[in-house]
Amino acid sequence: NAGVTQTPKFRVLKTGQSMTLLCAQDMNHEYMYWYRQDPGMGLRLIHYSVGEGTTAKGEVPDGYNVSRLKKQNFLLGLESAAPSQTSVYFCASSRLEWETQYFGPGTRLLVL
Amino acid sequence: GQQLNQSPQSMFIQEGEDVSMNCTSSSIFNTWLWYKQDPGEGPVLLIALYKAGELTSNGRLTAQFGITRKDSFLNISASIPSDVGIYFCAGQNRDDKIIFGKGTRLHILP
Question: Nearest to residue A99, comparing CAs of B71, B65, B48?
Fold first, then answer.
């Protein structure tokens, strides 16, 4: 079991560029989540999904889009990156809604 | 919205000392979770608490679910260098999303 994996591990973007972060889990979890972690801010929920084909907004959804076409994958998209989106992005999954979440290793994004 | 106050924000201790940290909220939670994050890694679950008053241990770690359901405590006994990292508490309520504290950064002095 790889658990939760994230691709890429690190990325540098210029303002206005787009990119997609990929999260994959092999635990057959229904629920998946995207968080961002900023210094002194803890973890903040961006979007989440309660199952294949479903997505919902979290605490800080603006500037991001997500898709859950397959149960094991949860994609986070930035259509037009801004410096304020410089952060570390964590994906997590859980078996049941809001049950114990298992986190990926993170994607470090720098927007210049 | 719901908020968790985690304290202290950071701790500097000597190796071998015991550590205590806590998380408080003005809201009631049904579940309390404690995570540890190593530098450059994602958070890893340490202990999950599901019942008020529950006391659970995981090796040198002990966590308690407060009786009021508004707080939780984590203790680490006889700290070792690999305990360095950021410890997060998180509260879950069936009607709300999981809420994370801002973390306690643990430093161990040689």
Answer: B48
Query: CB under 8 Å to B26, separation ≥6 — which residues?
Result: B2, B3, B70
Element (H, E) at A14: none
Q: How high is the mean pLDDT in each 10-residue block of chain A (112 residues)? A: 91 97 96 91 89 91 96 96 96 83 94 96
CA distance A34 to A92: 7
Which two tokens mark B35? 């995570």
Answer whether B99's CB lies under 8 Å from B4's CB: yes
Contact A100 B48 (CB under 8 A): yes
Q: Which helix (H) or strand (E) holds B20?
A: strand B19-25
> Where does chain B have alpha helices with state H?
none
User: pLDDT by residue (tens digit) across B87-100?
Assistant: 999 998 766 678 88
Distance (Å) of CA A94 to CA A29, A70, B34, B51: 5, 15, 15, 20
- Beta-carbon neighbour count of residue A84 at 10 Å? 11
Cis peptide bond N-terminal to B8, omega within 30: yes
- Structural contact between residues B30 and B94, judged by C-beta atoms closer than 8 angstroms: yes
Q: Which of residues 24-83 of B touch A (CB under 8 A)?
A: 33, 35, 40-45, 48
**Chain A residue closest to B89 (CA)?**
A42
